[in-house]
Design a protein that fits this description.
Helices cover 46% and strands 13% of the residues. It is globular, with a radius of gyration of 25 Å. The N terminus is likely disordered. Strand 11 and strand 12 form a beta hairpin. It has 4 domains: 132 residues, Response regulator (Rossmann fold, 3-Layer(aba) Sandwich); 160 residues, P-loop containing nucleotide triphosphate hydrolases (Rossmann fold); 79 residues, Helicase, Ruva Protein, domain 3; 49 residues, Arc Repressor Mutant, subunit A (Orthogonal Bundle). It has 454 residues and is of the alpha/beta class. Helix 18 packs across helix 19.
Length: 454
């Protein structure tokens, strides 16, 4: 971060009010002294009741709370703030190594967490990030936006706005070409980390023997060819967001090392004996099903729960067919401007052909089709012949008997119906439902996550 940005951020922090909630006098003293030195106003509370009362009568810009309180736990306070205190970021202080508590707090709506013993450097970074949420962005988001007025896309945009006010890890699921990286960029651009870097990484494109050095960097002389120190992806994304695309392709050994980096918020370069802080937010994505990967042993369960704190599911283009004309016109206008093409509209028959097309490659495939059509078109408008969609690619779903194709969609519907029926008969007792279905509780849990049953 440049000195100019640093001083601007510190100026934005000064004069704000923070509520700290803890029943340990030494922790309260440490937090209060650190925050006062940052120019912040501080109010103390030693239990849940006192904190709730203060929140009802005073305005605060940030709340820091311990997980264990004399009359309750920090999660209760997080839920209270999430319900009653709009736009108040809350961070929790967890016991060292308590990954479950940290994940639970993030799922409940916490902005972030910090582990004991409290690192003052991490505390100051957390406070500055949380308080910068209320500041206007220096730069507007790029031209690329998630277009569409469908219910599916509206829900995605609403969730992106909510996720941008948190530091929680986000897992973006969806088919190839559905806009997962664009969604990750938008979360970053709207977040407190917007002035930091956004570093996208395709996990499937890195050779396994280079993964550790690529992610964490290396010291000079660490191995043959290491002629100088080199930063890794974590160092490059410091203060910003690291986007791990196709995270399901990570080998198991690298999954272990990534898990430690996420839990400790520290990384160690290859060949180094010292760890360094990693102020990075992780957003991951894959077109594969991570829950299935856990079930068949290809993906670690603990890393899965660490990455999948909040899931953002990107809809396929066939699930938002009403948005195809809008997205088509926007893409055509962009390509026409870039290539100087004259055909920037579609004939009615071309629009109907696109509406019936199944788009296995989603928006990315639509862009390829339209770019090819612009090159082939000789008229003022693109025709259905210019699109070159073969009959095999067009899907007339209305004529598919009993809706049994695609097979996976049909099987998923049957499985979901059976699970919902069992859950209904057992009043959502998952243990009893699993027994009724003849599967293990763990298998039921994974199937419910895969099918979006909550």
């Amino acid at each position: 971060m440049t000195k100019r940005k640093q001083s601007k951020l510190e100026g934005a922090v000064a004069g704000r009010n923070v509520l700290i909630v803890d029943d340990e006098a030494d922790i309260l003293e440490l937090l209060e002294l650190t925050l006062l030195r940052m120019g912040l106003g501080v109010e103390r509370a030693e239990d849940l009741a006192s904190a709730t009362k203060l929140l009802q009568t005073r305005h605060f810009d940030l709340c820091l709370t311990d997980m264990r309180l004399p009359d309750g736990d920090g999660l209760e306070l997080v839920r209270y703030i999430d319900t009653h205190c709009d736009d108040l970021p809350v961070a929790v202080i967890t016991a060292h190594g308590s990954a479950e508590n940290a994940v639970a707090a993030l799922k409940a709506g916490a902005f972030d967490y910090i582990a004991k013993p409290v690192s003052l450097e991490q505390l100051r970074t957390l406070v500055k990030s949380a308080l910068s949420l209320a500041q206007p962005a220096d730069d507007k988001p790029g031209d690329d936006q998630l277009l569409g007025g469908s219910e599916a896309m509206s829900q995605v945009r609403q969730l992106i706005d909510k996720l941008s006010r948190s530091e929680a890890p986000v897992y973006i699921s969806g088919e190839s070409g559905s806009g997962k990286e664009l969604a990750a960029r938008l979360i970053h651009e709207k977040s407190a980390r917007r002035s930091g870097p956004f570093v996208p990484v395709n996990c499937g494109a890195i050779p396994e023997n280079l993964m550790e050095s690529e992610f964490f960097g290396y010291k000079k002389g660490a191995f043959t060819g290491a002629e100088q120190d080199r930063e890794g992806f974590f160092q490059a994304a410091n203060g910003g967001t690291l986007f791990l695309d196709e995270v399901a392709d990570l080998p198991l050994l690298m999954q272990v090392k990534l898990l430690r980096a996420l839990q400790e918020k520290k990384v160690r370069k290859v060949g180094s004996t010292q760890e360094e802080n990693a102020d990075v937010r992780i957003i991951s994505a894959t077109h594969q099903n991570l829950a299935d990967g856990v079930e068949n042993g290809k993906f670690r369960q603990d890393l899965y729960y660490r990455l999948n704190v909040i899931e953002l599911k990107m809809p396929s283009l066939r699930d938002m067919r009403e948005d195809i004309p809008l997205i088509t016109r926007a893409v055509l206008a962009r390509f026409a401007k870039q290539h100087g093409a004259t055909a920037s509209e579609l004939e009615e028959d071309a629009l109907q052909a696109l509406a019936q097309y199944d788009f296995p490659g989603n928006v990315r495939e639509l862009e390829n089709i339209l770019e090819r059509s612009l090159a082939l078109s000789t008229g003022a408008k693109i025709t259905s012949e210019d699109l070159q969609l073969t009959p095999q690619q067009s899907v007339e779903r209305a004529g598919v008997p009993d809706g049994k194709w695609p097979l996976q969609d049909y099987l998923d519907r049957l499985e979901k119906e059976a699970i919902l029926e069992a859950l209904g008969k057992t009043r959502f007792n998952r243990t009893a439902a699993a027994k009724m279905l003849g599967i293990t509780f763990r298998s039921l849990r994974y199937r419910m996550e895969r099918l979006g049953i909550t």
